[in-house]
Amino acid sequence: MRQHRLSLCKQHYLLWLPDQVERFIKKYQMFTKYERVLVAVSGGKDSLALWDILWKLGYQTEGLYINLGIDGDISYSDRSMNFAQSFADQRQLCLHVVDIKDQYLETVPEISMRTKRGREKPCSLCGLIKRYVLNQYAVNGKFDVLVTAHNLDDEAAILLANTLDWSLDYLARGKPVLPLKPGFSKKTKPFCRIYEREAAAFAILNGIEYVRDECPFSIDSKQLFYKKHLNEWEDKQPGTKLRFYLKYLSALEKGAFPSRQDSADNLVHHLCPNCGQPTTTGSLCAFCKLFKEKSISEENSIIK
What separation, in Å, do the N-terminal and C-terminal C-alpha atoms of the chain show? Predict the structure, then answer.
């Protein structure tokens, strides 16, 4: 690991990475071993490696897999779910599953095809749906914290994209911990300083089976584009991603990107009239609008 000026054998690597994760959990005050932790599980290397580490460290974890219905009969989503379920069964852990098709009568690809947002930005639509379901499940299930497996590569790519666009609202919200707010669960990222290759190495050395395919929706993903170039910089200057991210966190602490507190505080006064979740306006939330579009489309078809 040139970025750390460190080389480890298998035995010590499998001890080193959990120690790093534990250190970051404590440093950023993410959660304690007395709290209920909901882990967002995709069936990929990062989320399963993270869940394995948290389990071995003694945290009270349960997993949540969202079946998005992606990619046909023997689907990407079903294969991913099978890896997640197998992982949980082997360790006698609890895995909750939310099936988008069962709950909302459409798969994510079907929603994507009929909405403008989905056709133009399928990853954005998918992210909206996952964020909504994860938050809803964490709040309704009375979990103390929702954990995602965003790694350093993810954080650096998102940071680069937001910096190039000067997306100030997003830049103000990039901390490893998003605090509890009315209607919103506390969210944390224990892998925020863990390289993607480090998480992959942990999964492989531990014998964790995971889905290795990229999501079919991610083919033209901007995040993969930014990751490619970040990898090139990292190869020439080891530690680039980590410096970029840590300097950003330092800038946040110094008030470089002040958040719009009035907007954040007003969320409690605006609840979606359909689902009751917080929204930035007094109308339907972005998630419920996806299905409002369907109702309007169906009504227009009947009239025609």
Answer: 63
Beta bridge partners of 188: 147, 177
Q: Spell out a b/e string for 26-56, using b for 16 or more CB atoms within 10 Å of the CB, else e.
A: eebebbeeeeebbbbbbbbbbbbbbbbbbbe
Cα–Cα distance between 85 and 80 in angstroms, integer?
9
Structure pTM?
0.90
- What whole-number distance in Å separates Cα of residue 95 and Cα of residue 100? 16
DSSP string, 195-253: -HHHHHHHHHHTT-----SPPGGGTT-HHHHHHHHHHHHHHHSTTHHHHHHHHHHHHHH
- Output b/e per residue, 141-156; b: 16+ Cβ within 10 A: eebbbbbbbbbbbbbb
Tens place of pLDDT for every residue, the chain, 304 residues? 999 999 999 999 999 999 999 999 999 999 999 999 999 999 999 999 999 999 999 999 999 999 988 875 458 888 999 999 999 999 999 999 999 999 989 888 888 888 777 676 778 888 889 999 999 999 999 999 999 999 999 999 999 999 999 999 889 989 999 999 888 999 999 999 999 999 999 999 999 999 988 777 777 678 889 999 999 999 999 999 999 999 999 999 998 988 655 444 444 457 888 888 888 776 888 888 888 765 544 444 444 4
Any idea what the Cα angle at residue 249 is, between residues 248 and 251, rounded to 5°?
A: 65
Token representation of residue 281:
């306006």
The structure tokens 């170039």 sit at 229
Helix (H) or strand (E) segment spanning residue 95: strand 95-99
CB neighbours of residue 5 within 10 Å: 8
Helix (H/G/I), strand (E/B), else coil: 67: strand
